[in-house]
Amino acid sequence: MNVLQFLGIYPDAIEYAAEKAEAAMEDAGASLPDIDYMYDAVRDSFKEKELDLENVTDSLISKFFEYAKSVLEKELSRAEVTYCVNCNDSHFYVNGEEYYKGDNTITDLRRGIDIPSVEMTEYGNIPALRAALNIEDDDILADLLNGAEDKHSDSLADIYDKDGYEIIEDIDAAQVLMNFEAFVLLLENGKRVYEIKVFDEKADEERIVRADRAEQLQEADKLRIKTDMALRSLKKEGCILDAEEEYFLEKHILNREQYSSDSIL
Question: Is the pTM of this model over 0.70?
Answer without folding.
Answer: no
